[in-house]
Amino acid sequence: MKLATPGLVACLLAPMAHAEEVSIALDWTLNTNHVGLVVAQEKGYFADAGLEVDILPYSDSSSTVLLAAGAVDFAYMTALGFMSAKAGGADITALWVTMQREAGRLVYNSDNEEISRPADLEGKTYAGFGSAWEAALISTMIEQDGGTPDYDTVTLGTGAYEALASGAVDFTLEVATWEGVNSELLGRDQSHFIYSDYGVPEPQGGYIGTRDSLLRDDPEMVDAFMEAASKGYAWAAENPQAAAEILIEAGDFPNEELVRGSMRVIDEGGYLTDGTTPPGRIDGGRLETMARFLYDSGVLRGSDGQPLAWPGDVSGWFDQRWMED
């Protein structure tokens, strides 16, 4: 075997030695929403861009809080998390959005003969997750259907799904591309209502953002990171089942069929791209409509707990100039 000369070794190691270290915090435990980041990591897109990316596991501190505090360079954020932080004055900017369609839905057991429309939820028991957004969403749906938003709430977190399956509660909220797939795999017979059918704007979901200071001081790195991440998501959209296998290999999933099923639903449902919208493209009009709904519903509040006033313009909440390079 021929050994490499010291000079050749130095050349081979140079890209790694000069790779810029960056970090991104996730909004939840690793799942198919994050598939493009993992693909970009595993297929070397980040490395090709001269970046050494640390995809941080979910922690007790939200990704949005970590980003705003300067603890990470990028964050994958829920739409509500991002909009709440931005409305509260956080110096962060959205660069990307993953889901082109709303994946959330209100779900109930199909054999519950007392529920056939949102108005029927009056007087029922909801298993929730503890956010003001849930109350605004559910109340809007019930009112739009002609009912009175008077229902009981028990905060159960992820235990909501078992509680619903056992009949201990009447309804909850789920993500079609994850909990919905899991329910199908478990053979649960459940029905659902789509938020946008009952007065709730349909947002995009899953924002990737950075700090305003980083966007200003190191735009080349931000561009490089986002272009590599975008390449990862585009590859996943074109190769959903291969992407599922990459995600499974990179993570620790008790049920690998959940990952495969989730990527199938994401693909068939046109969540990453509807065929006309490029992956990651933020629709400013939809962002503004959802932000206005959250302001008007009193969901977005200041540090004093009081509802915030509509600022009149949220066009500066996102920046996708990196897509134009």
CATH architecture of the largest domain, by name, is: 3-Layer(aba) Sandwich
The gross shape turns out to be: globular
- How much of the sequence lies in strands comes to 15-25%
Number of helices: 13
Secondary-structure-derived class: alpha/beta
| Strand adjacency order, main sheet | 2-1-3-10-4
Q: Look at the structure and name the CATH superfamily of the largest domain.
A: Periplasmic binding protein-like II
Report the helical percentage: 25-40%
The number of strands is 10
Characteristic key phrases:
325 residues, alpha/beta, D-Maltodextrin-Binding Protein, domain 2, 2 domains, 5-stranded mixed beta sheet, 3-stranded antiparallel beta sheet, 40% helix, 17% strand, globular
Question: How does this model look, in words?
Answer:
The protein is an alpha/beta fold and 325 residues long. It has two domains: 12-101 and 204-324, Periplasmic binding protein-like II (D-Maltodextrin-Binding Protein, domain 2, 3-Layer(aba) Sandwich), CATH 3.40.190; 104-198, Periplasmic binding protein-like II (D-Maltodextrin-Binding Protein, domain 2, 3-Layer(aba) Sandwich). It is built from 13 helices and ten strands. It has helices at residues 6-17, 35-42, 45-48, 63-68, 79-87, 132-144, 160-166, 179-185, 212-217, 219-238, 240-250, 256-268, 284-296; strands at 20-25, 51-56, 74-77, 92-99, 104-109, 125-128, 152-155, 171-175, 190-193, 205-211. It has a five-stranded mixed β-sheet. Strands 8-5-9 form a three-stranded antiparallel β-sheet, covered by helices on one side. A two-stranded parallel ribbon has the order 6-7. The N and C termini lie far apart (44 Å).
